[in-house]
Amino acid sequence: MEPADLLIEHFRTYLNWNKCRLSVLAYLVLGLLEKQTVNFTHLTTTFPGKSQTASCYRRIQRFFLEVVFEESITARMTASLFAPEGKWQLSMDRTNWLFGMFKINILFLAINYKGMAIPILWTLLPKIQKLDQKRQA
User: Fold this and answer.
1) How confident is the model over 48-103, as pLDDT tens digits?
2) The model's pTM
């Protein structure tokens, strides 16, 4: 069985989606692991078949426009992929990102897996402010 097929079967136990959506999710996960980027253009090259890059790009866009992820289901599904035996080592991290003129605080809960932290839950912390406002204070 191909890796994408295994992922589709795994996702099917958690998500009540049609096969097309499950396939796109599987290709995205495999693409993220292979390319180590979230750039849609790079991820399109990992999709199987003879579809043009533009078609795969549009397919990814439609996927993210139409699909809603439920936090609790996504967290359980991700955890079961990276810690199937149920013994998890968790880590928590807060990070600041600069997005244009805004500072964004995010708190992550992640599963530690082979030297990586795989986020399963996250929340925006309330201290989001414009940089110009902070300078004026």
Assistant:
1) 988 899 999 999 999 999 999 898 898 889 888 887 776 788 999 998 888 888 88
2) 0.76
Q: Which amino acid is at 93?
A: D
Instruction: Estimate the crossing angle of helix 53-66 against helix 19-35, to 10 degrees.
Output: 110
In a domain, residue 113? The reply is: yes
Residue 118 lies in a domain: yes
Q: Total domain count for the chain?
A: 2
- Nearest of 32, 1, 25 to residue 11 by alpha carbon: 25
* 59, 95: one domain: no
Provide the pairing of β-strand 102-113 with 116-124.
antiparallel
Classify residue 92: in a domain, yes or no. yes
| Cβ proximity of 105 and 127 under 8 Å | yes
How far, in Å, CA of 38 to CA of 29, rounded? 10
- Sort strands 102-113 and 129-130 into parallel, antiparallel or unpaired: antiparallel
In angstroms, the Cα distances linking 14 to 23, 24, 128 are: 14, 15, 33
Structural domain boundaries, residue 123: 84-136
